[in-house]
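Two proteins follow. First one:
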Amino acid sequence: MELKNLDLLPLLSYFEECHEDDLLSFTQWLDKAIYMFHYLPSDAFSELERQNVCHVLMELKEVVMEIHVEQNNCA
């Protein structure tokens, strides 16, 4: 399945409504979520599941940071 720009409108709305277009705020919350994963009981997730979830969150953070940097370079 190929994503189109229109598919991302709910995500853009989320950034606008919940983070007031502040992508850095969003990345800070991602950092907190990743940090909190380390304090869950060890039987809540397998080590592989924990690594995979943290990896996905880190990749999402990296993409958001790239968008933030590109926006600031174009401004």
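Second one, unrelated to the first:
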Amino acid sequence: MIIVSGIAYHFLSPQIFVRNHSDRSFYQVIFNLPTSQIIFEPIKANSRQTIYFPPQEKTGLVTYQLIAINGDQVAQGHIKYQFDDSSSQLGTKLSFIIDKRYRP
């Protein structure tokens, strides 16, 4: 029962989903969460990746930077990450999708 609970908690943990619909690869995408940082690298062409992260200790902005293979910053931005308590974060999914024209 403990193992099942642990597995369920993992898959209900907040997650970031990155999907690259383009035929271009990228060096990395960096997400700065209110209390942690998550880096996906590399971002291969026509790929998808998911990273689960622990519930954040506070609300705030999630900033992101998409970095090209040559090190240039391709895109940057932010989204609001807000919640009432740590349990309300369970099942949260943040999606970052790069379209076919290489725009996030």
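SUMMARY FIELD: Helices lie at 2-12. Residues 2-12 form the longest helix (11 residues).
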